[in-house]
Amino acid sequence: MSNYNEIAALNYSGAKLLLRSPAHYKTSLTTEREDTPALRIGRLSHMAAFEPSVFIDTVAEEPDLDRRTKEGKTQYEEFKKNLPDYCITVKKNEFETISRIGQSATEAMKSIGFKIEQAEAVYVKDYGNYKLKGRVDAIGEINGEKAIIDLKTCESAEPAIFSKSVANYMYHLQNAWYSEITGITLFYFIAQEKEPPYAWRVYTLDEGSIEQGKKLMREAISIYQLCSASNQWPSYSKEITTLSLPNWAYTK
Asked: What's 113's DSSP letter?
């Protein structure tokens, strides 16, 4: 399939922005996302987990050299010269982190009997007069039933903490979105910690969370349809709003 970003369709990330405001979504279409070290580590961790052979062929650990010295620079250039043009180099500590995340995520998938069939699978679905798209981490089978796996690196995989991440980052919307475009309802999140001992847990969402995700999906699509038809992409309300403190603030 052609470059994912070139496919004219609404995706999960766009839906999240629409729920913030249509203006935020519209701006994102013409804003280039900065490729930060954290994003690169996340991307390569997914490769190590779901496409290990590609990771081995594509990613190389940089030698531990002092490149401020003439000797270090020469040795580094020699190292680079012997690599294929497509090879990605990462620092020793980053390579260790990425490799350990990949190994732990593989262990998590094995624990539930998940067998990968497709990694980074792109789906596009017609939805009324519009198209929805998504790039799914991994699709495979568990005991003969089709399933989706999504890897989430996190600070803590504890249930009480990761459930907050699900709510804050709208992972329940992602669950609904990917199930809609793939037709696969069995969905697992691997919550993978980014620090030693690289602990993990596998989660599914309860029925109430899934239904809330579907509700958000329908709301985002409705906003998209209305704004596309009118070519109006408003930001926040211009009315003065009265705020109330969150409940936890009254316990201090």
From this structure: T
Q: What is the CATH code of the structural domain delimited by 1-32+113-235? A: 3.90.320.10
201 CB burial (10 A radius; 0-12, 13-18, 19+): middle
Q: Which tokens go with 236?
A: 């926040």
DSSP state of 52: H
Q: What is the mean pLDDT of each run of 10 residues along the chain (252 residues)?
A: 83 98 96 87 96 95 84 81 88 95 98 97 95 98 97 97 98 98 98 97 98 98 97 96 94 79
Separation of alpha carbons 170 and 166, rounded Å: 5
Question: DSSP class of residue 194?
Answer: S
pTM: 0.91
As a whole number of angstroms, the distance between CA 224 and CA 218 comes to 10
User: In the beta sheet, which residues pair with residue 71?
Assistant: none
Per DSSP, 10 falls in state: B
Measured in whole angstroms, the distance separating CA 26 from the mean position of its chain's CA atoms is 20
Structural domain spans, the chain = 1-32+113-235, 35-111
Nearest to 95 by CA among 137, 44, 35: 44
